[in-house]
Amino acid sequence: MKTVVAVYTGQGLAEPMRDIYRELLPDCRIVTIVDDSLIHDVVKAGQVTPAVTRRLIQYYQNGAEMGADAIFNTCSSVGEVAELARGIVDAPIVRIDDAMTYEAASKYERIGVLATLPTTLEPTKRLLRRQAEKLGKPVAIVDGLAEGAYDALVGGSPERHDQILLETAERVAGQADALVLAQGSMARMEERLAALGIPVLSSPYRGVLAVKKLLEEAGRGR
């Protein structure tokens, strides 16, 4: 049985991801590491701090020690730490948004990025640009920061969060060929946002597909 260690910086995404694991990785052991102080510290500082970086790398190393065949980084805000850790940790690390951003950069010229936090928006934009550079094609990125949505959510008003996100998407959709949802927790809004008439890409399903592909390729290589 293959082992996948999924690292979360908050509680919100872990439960919805379980159905995706059951569908795509039914024969894998899924080990979950959750430290919700991580995203709290990132939001408070407005960036990924050295302390957050050290803790995350330690979690990745813990995953490798658990015998992980793959480590799944589920938080876009700290995805660049996952890239850094690839040269340190003795287990392959998959970013949840790698496949999503590659698909967006390969298919579309104008990409709207929706996020409720600047700490997620900026890393996602940087990743999109790097994916486009790899493909050798130009892309235009439209900022879709849904200001106030995160505060509404943590303040216990999910309906207000969704409304702010929808209003932001409506503004961005007129300037973009597709929308990218920078946070995995936004995937539940994908169908609703698709009513705007342009493609909407989210990361959870695509991220787990990338993990599955990595495990299959490793198995064939043996």
Assign the structural class, choosing from mainly alpha, mainly beta, alpha/beta, alpha+beta, or little secondary structure: alpha/beta
| First-to-last CA distance | 15 Å
Estimated share of beta-strand residues? 15-25%
> What's the average pLDDT?
94
Strands of the widest sheet, in order across it, are: 2-1-3-4
Beta-strand segment tally: 8
Element-by-element helix/strand order:
EHEHHEHEHEHEHHEHEH
Continuous helix count: 10
Sheet with most strands: 4 strands, parallel
CATH class of the largest domain: Alpha Beta
The CATH architecture term of the largest domain is: 3-Layer(aba) Sandwich
The 3D shape can be described as globular
Number of individual domains: 2
Rg over C-alpha atoms, rounded to the nearest angstrom: 17 Å
State the low-pLDDT regions, or none: none
CATH topology of the largest domain: Rossmann fold
Helix content: 40-55%
GO molecular function, one term: amino-acid racemase activity
Family: Belongs to the HyuE racemase family.
Protein name: Asp/Glu/hydantoin racemase
InterPro entries: Asp/Glu/hydantoin_racemase, Iso_Racemase_Enz_sf
